[in-house]
């Protein structure tokens, strides 16, 4: 399957921006991020710190890989796998009734409580990554107008992502009915 090169570049740039921002935020607040990973209660204590330290470089390398067509399919697969893993980790904690913890997506930049909306967001982003893994390269050369279109689309999608993320981060927790 070949995607239109403008669409492929748009998806790659949006995912790269999200992952690079998240990785840099985690690296800047590493002690807080270690606490976030620990708070998920999914890893044995000896693995929490190594996992927390390993994740940001992997995210950053995946973001960089998305920028180059030869490495894009593999980087997109890594991104999709990470997003599915994040969705699973959030889902497990929500099933346990643990929704009042920070997701850790952008430690230090944006605090977001766990929610099914975050699971959905990660699944949509994972789908975008999976679509990029199927791309077999440009079916046509990029034109000058494509650059304008890609830039506008990337900016709009990142603004939409930020708005939705902010909404999930400040959404009130539903009151539980007394039984």
TrEMBL record:
Top-rank taxon, per record: Bacteria
Function: May be specifically involved in the processing, transport, and/or maturation of the MADH beta-subunit.
The UniProt record lists the keyword Membrane: yes
TM stretches of this protein: 74-94, 114-132, 144-164
A matching Pfam family: MauE
Pathway: One-carbon metabolism; methylamine degradation
Membrane topology recorded in Swiss-Prot or TrEMBL: Multi-pass membrane protein
Matches recorded under InterPro entries: Methylamine_util_MauE
Alphabetic keyword roster: Membrane, Transmembrane, Transmembrane helix
Provenance organism: Benzoatithermus flavus
UniProt protein name: Methylamine utilization protein MauE
Keyword DNA-binding appears in the UniProt entry: no
Compartment(s) of residence: Membrane
Domain Methylamine utilisation protein MauE: 6-132
């Amino acid at each position: 399957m070949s995607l239109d090169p403008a669409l492929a570049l748009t998806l790659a740039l949006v995912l790269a921006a999200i992952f690079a921002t998240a990785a840099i935020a985690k690296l800047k607040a590493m002690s807080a991020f270690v606490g976030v990973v620990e708070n998920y209660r999914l890893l044995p204590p000896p693995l929490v710190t190594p996992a927390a330290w390993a994740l940001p470089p992997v995210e950053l390398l995946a973001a960089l890989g998305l920028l180059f067509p030869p490495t894009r399919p593999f980087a997109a697969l890594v991104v999709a796998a990470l997003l599915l893993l994040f969705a699973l980790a959030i889902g497990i904690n929500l099933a346990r009734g643990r929704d009042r913890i920070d997701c850790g997506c952008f430690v230090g930049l944006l605090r977001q409580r766990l929610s099914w909306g975050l699971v959905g967001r990660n699944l949509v982003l994972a789908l975008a990554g999976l679509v990029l893994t199927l791309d077999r390269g440009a079916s046509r050369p990029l034109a000058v107008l494509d650059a304008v279109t890609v830039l506008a689309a990337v900016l709009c999608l990142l603004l939409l992502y930020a708005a939705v993320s902010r909404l999930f981060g400040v959404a009130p927790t539903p009151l539980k009915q007394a039984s």
